[in-house]
Design brief:
The complex is a heterodimer of chains A (about 120) and B (about 900).
Chain A: H1 3-21, E1 44-52, E2 56-62, H2 64-75, H3 82-104, E3 108-110, E4 114-117
Antiparallel strand pairs in A: 1-2, 1-3, 1-4
Chain B: H1 5-31, H2 35-65, E1 68-69, E2 73-74, H3 85-108, H4 115-138, H5 149-153, H6 161-179, H7 200-219, H8 228-255, H9 260-277, H10 283-306, H11 315-333, H12 336-339, H13 345-377, H14 384-389, H15 391-396, H16 401-415, H17 429-460, E3 464-468, H18 480-486, H19 496-501, H20 506-519, H21 526-531, E4 538-543, E5 549-563, E6 566-576, H22 578-604, H23 609-631, H24 637-658, H25 661-680, H26 688-716, H27 726-741, E7 745-748, H28 759-780, H29 784-789, E8 796-805, E9 808-815, H30 822-831, H31 840-846, H32 867-877, E10 881-887, E11 891-899
Parallel strand pairs in B: 7-8
Antiparallel strand pairs in B: 1-2, 3-6, 4-5, 5-6, 8-9, 9-11, 10-11
Chain lengths: ~120, ~900
């Protein structure tokens, strides 16, 4: 991936979080680093496979408080049950992947999201 | 009434001739009906013969020839016992007449009347109807019994045109009106369907037998072999012949053909007509009577059809109509003298008419009334289903070959099993049909088997193969490989584009839709279309539902199937070439990898394996450190960049030392990038992107090298030293740097190789030494000329010694260069804003900072001002200390202590 493509990718993600939380400028990227085998996985993870003109995957991992915040913004309540949280992780990833598809074109195939719960200690 | 032996013989012969007529009736009736009923019709003939014989003997004879009760009915001689030869002959002769009358009914009502009902009607007929009227006309023949009332009035019916034949016809008419026509004989819209007989030759033979038997019927009715007999027989045969011709030639213009029924029934009608009058008319008259009888029969047939009365064999036209005509002919043509009643012609005709009418009233009236009531209680007619199946099987359980064929056909229609064969009855028409039918079945079955063959081909072919119609709908028969390729069942019936839509780029899908239209447009040449096939090499993406995709490379080929001037179907062949594609890609990748490996191999060839592994280990470790520096989200971005810079510098140093110029160059580029960012200031998170992309690439190169090394390691593990000798590496580095900076120098590594250190410490020591050597070679050691001028050995000397005590490692490093240029540093410090006096201690500290380099230009080995800063960071990480002993112009010495275990 080229730098400008990564920037598009980041913009799609920050835009998403910005628009969900109601402030475009609120979301920004932290210090980037390379994901490797040693990288941490949080409690909730969604994976979407990518094929077509590009191959790989989109991987979104987070902790529950963030999801509860997002749930509050989207659903209007923080107190949501586990299945809803799981759905939310998948749905967020799916929306982001879908938005990326708009940028990367129709040959950017995205799979259905796979949702995982729990970390590897 | 005693008779001569000759007369008795003649009557017996005549009786047997009349009996033969039963056979004739059986043949005519069964031949003229359909074969599904023929057995039933024939057996009815036998049945009525038996029933009528017994019942006429028991009761009928008494009613007919018993002592007359007012001329209306006989009433003696029940269960008649013949006392004499003549009487026995007479009874036998009369029984055959009764049977003849009774059997007429069976033909008319054939194909729909119940067998049991027929027995009832036969009993009624032979006990009451026939004998009572017989008494009226013929009573009093036996001595002292008294004549019947009609006979007394002068009614003449010589052999029974009315008594036998018309009577049979009246009863048949009564039953026909009660039971109705056969199914399908008359249609609702007024049409008439002819139901053809099954065996006309038999019917013809039957007619001939009747004709033959009639010689006894008429000839025997004289009850003596007298002068009249020969003439009677002659006129009988003439009338039969005339009847046949009359019906034939009258019917030919009407029916436009020689109708078989007219020929058969015409003969019989002539015979019936002459029966009443054969003893009193001339030969010419007999021909006229016979011919007219035939024509009357034909007209009556047409009338019955119009009235929708269904007479299966024409019994009413023959026996009733011609019988009436014949009876009238006694009065019309008969010689009054021979008649001998003493009546004039008109009176005779009137009495004949009275006889005819009374026969109708009695015969029709009684049978209709009796059977109408019986029908209400016990239906005379069979069910429609039985009628369709045929009476042979429903009434008697007897099959014929046609029924067997019929059953086979019904069975096959029901089950669809075409492996069954019809029974072929040899020497029969149905047998031939069955044989032909079997041949058709053979062919049909073999073509069905061919279809099965095609289907099994479709099941086994490894490519996807299907037909699609103009709407793009996939036909029911497609190869099962198609389902495997698309990992989907129930493909048939779905649209081609919708089948592939979820696996393919929407832009490609749109061009497929257009292409599909072009395929069915016959004006487009296929050769051109082949070139623009958008699916010639298509990549399809299958979502596995596990967050992964499976890519398939499919080749689609299209072929038109034309019908007339249009494209009827398009055959589509789908080949899965994924494996081929993957192999090709693998080969390409392998080639690429091989060339990269060859390049690395070339470079690595001269590096001692232990050194190489040490390098890989430390570089990957450095890269990890960089990543973990970045992954810590808080902290000053500029400080992070500086840290990364230091680590990069270490990698660069190592790369340089081992001669991996391309890696050193890469690291140098990264350093350039970071420097530029630091210089620009205002570092944002976004700025790290370009840096981490570079590191990610660097890392992947290192990983490749690691892979390469592991391969070698596996191959050469026996010959590989446990570790690379540090002394050797350092010597190489010095040599290399000497060349680069055009300086002469040697290094004395002492016992460094013999000190056993942990991996971390070994790396720390090495990193420190590399940076110190680079520092010496760039800053400390002067060029050859300067050294000579200052009275030094032109060749610089670097000394290294390493010692270990418990967990402390002491590294002493020295060179005989110019030492730290304190003035130059003091100047630089002043430039950067240091005020006041700068102590020597501060200067020596300053050289360990990032900006501490005094190099006038930046190149690969120095000038970054990072080398000694890196040394400091390593030492700090290992809780160590550095002592600097700098002697201006003479030497520089570092004493470094490190503690095992990182901070």
């Amino acid at each position: 991936m080229k730098e400008n493509e990564i920037k598009v990718f980041i913009k799609v993600i920050t835009d998403y979080f910005g628009s969900v939380t109601g402030g475009e400028s609120l979301a920004s990227m932290g210090v980037p680093f390379i994901k490797d085998a040693k990288s941490k996985v949080f409690s909730y993870t969604a994976i979407i496979g990518i094929s077509g003109s590009r191959k790989g995957g989109i991987f979104f991992t987070t902790e529950r408080p963030l999801l509860e915040d997002i749930a509050f913004h989207i659903l209007g309540e923080k107190d949501v049950d586990e299945p809803t949280i799981m759905d939310l992780v998948g749905e967020m990833t799916n929306v982001i992947a879908g938005n990326l598809r708009e940028t990367f074109g129709s040959s950017f195939f995205i799979s259905v999201p796979i949702i995982m719960k729990g970390k590897i200690e | 009434m005693e008779k001569s032996a000759v007369d008795i013989l003649w009557i017996l012969i005549s009786g047997t001739l009349v009996f033969i007529m039963q056979a004739g009736f059986a043949m005519v009736e069964s031949g003229m009906t359909r074969s599904k009923n023929s057995i039933n019709v024939a057996i009815k003939n036998l049945t009525d013969l038996g029933i009528s014989t017994v019942f006429f003997w028991a009761f009928g004879f008494a009613f007919m020839f018993g002592v007359s009760f007012n001329g209306f009915i006989g009433a003696s001689n029940f269960f008649f016992t013949a006392g004499s030869l003549s009487l026995a002959t007479f009874v036998f002769f009369q029984i055959t007449f009764c049977s003849t009358s009774a059997t007429i009914v069976s033909g008319a009502v054939a194909e729909r009347m119940k067998y049991s009902s027929y027995i009832i009607s036969t009993i009624i007929m032979s006990v009451i109807i026939y004998p009572v009227f017989g008494h009226w006309a013929w009573g009093g023949v036996l001595d002292g019994t008294g004549s019947g009332w009609l006979a007394s009035k002068g009614f003449i019916d010589f052999a029974g045109s009315t008594v036998v034949h018309s009577m049979g016809g009246w009863v048949a008419l009564a039953i026909l009106l009660i039971i109705g026509p056969r199914l399908g004989r008359f249609t609702d819209d007024g049409g008439v369907n002819r139901i053809n007989g099954s065996n006309i030759p038999i019917a013809v033979l039957g007619v001939m037998l009747l004709w033959f038997g009639w010689f006894g019927f008429n000839g025997g009715s004289t009850l003596a072999l007298n002068d009249a007999v020969a003439g009677i027989i002659l006129r009988t045969t003439l009338a039969a012949a005339a009847g046949m011709m009359g019906a034939l030639f009258a019917g030919w213009p009407i029916f436009k053909k020689a109708d078989i029924n007219l020929l058969l029934n015409g003969s019989l009608a002539g015979l019936v007509a002459i029966t009443a009058c054969c003893h009193v008319v001339s030969e010419v008259n007999s021909v006229i009577i016979g011919a007219a009888g035939g024509i009357i029969m034909m007209l009556c047939t047409l009338l019955l059809e119009r009235l929708k009365i269904d007479d299966a064999v024409g019994a009413i036209p023959v026996h009733l109509a011609a019988g009436i005509w014949g009876t009238l002919c006694v009065g019309i043509f008969g010689s009054l003298e021979l008649i001998g009643t003493g009546l004039d012609r008109w009176s005779q005709i009137v009495i004949q008419l009275i006889g005819i009418l009374s026969c109708g009233v009695w015969g029709f009236g009684v049978s209709f009334a009796a059977l109408f009531i019986i029908n209400k209680i016990f239906p005379l007619r069979i069910s429609a289903a039985d009628e369709r199946a045929g009476l042979n099987v429903t009434e008697h359980g007897v099959t014929t070959e046609i029924l067997d064929l019929y059953i086979t056909l019904v069975e096959q229609a029901k089950t669809g099993d075409i492996s069954k064969r019809a029974i072929v009855e040899p020497f029969t028409e149905v047998g031939q049909i069955a044989g032909m039918y079997n041949n058709v079945l053979e062919k049909l079955e073999s073509s069905t088997v061919e279809k099965t063959d095609y289907v099994s081909i479709l099941d086994n072919v490894s490519d996807g193969l299907f037909l699609m119609d103009k709407g793009g709908i996939i036909s029911p028969y497609h190869s099962s490989a198609l389902e495997k390729i698309f990992e989907k069942t129930e493909i048939a019936g779905s649209g081609f584009t919708s089948l592939i839509s979820s696996y393919i780029d929407s832009a490609v899908l749109n061009s497929v839709k257009d292409y599909q239209e072009l395929l069915f447009d016959i004006s487009r040449p296929m050769r051109t279309l082949e070139k623009i096939n958008p699916l010639r090499e298509a990549e399809l993406f299958f979502d596995l539902g596990t967050g992964e995709f499976k890519n398939k490379f499919l080749e689609f080929a299209f072929k038109r199937i034309e019908k007339g001037d249009s494209v009827f179907r398009v055959m589509v062949l789908v080949r899965d070439v994924t494996i081929e594609k993957e192999l090709a890609k693998e080969i390409e990748d392998t080639q690429k990898r091989t060339s990269l490996e060859m390049e690395l191999f070339y470079r690595v060839l001269h590096v001692e394996p232990g050194t190489f592994s040490g390098f890989i280990y430390s570089a990957l470790d450095d890269l990890d450190r960089i990543n973990s520096t970045l992954s810590v989200q808080d902290g000053d971005p500029a400080e992070k960049l500086r840290e990364i810079f230091r680590i990069t510098h270490s990698i660069k140093g190592d790369s340089d030392m081992l001669g991996f110029d391309f890696l050193a160059d890469f690291a140098h580029e990264i350093e350039d990038n970071i420097s530029a960012l630091l210089k620009r200031g205002g570092i944002k998170n976004d700025d790290f992107l370009s840096v981490i992309i570079s590191f990610s690439e660097f890392k992947s190169i290192m990983e490749k090298m690691e892979l390469l090394f592991n391969k070698w390691g596996a191959a050469n593990s026996d010959e590989m030293p446990a570790d690379g000798k540090l002394s050797l590496q350092l010597e190489t580095l010095v040599k290399k740097l000497s060349e680069r900076h055009n300086k002469k120098a040697v290094i004395d590594c002492g016992e460094v190789d013999s000190i056993v250190l942990s991996t971390e410490l070994k790396k720390a020591v090495k990193d420190i030494l590399v940076q110190l050597i680079r520092n010496s070679m760039f800053h400390g050691i002067e060029d050859e000329k300067t050294r000579t001028e200052s009275g030094k050995n032109p060749e610089g000397r670097i000394g290294v010694s390493l010692s270990k005590n418990d967990d402390t490692v002491t590294l002493v490093y020295s060179d005989d260069g110019q030492g730290v240029d304190e003035k130059k540093i003091a100047r630089k410090m002043a430039e950067e804003g240091h005020t006041g006096e700068i102590a020597r201690r501060d200067i020596l500290k300053y050289i360990f900072t990032d900006s501490g380099s005094t190099a006038s230009s930046v190149n690969k080995s120095a000038g970054r001002g990072v080398g000694l800063a890196l040394v400091k960071s390593i030492v700090l990480r290992h809780k160590g200390k550095i002592l600097v002993d700098s002697r201006q112009g003479k030497s520089l010495k570092f004493t470094v202590t490190l503690k095992a275990g990182k901070e």
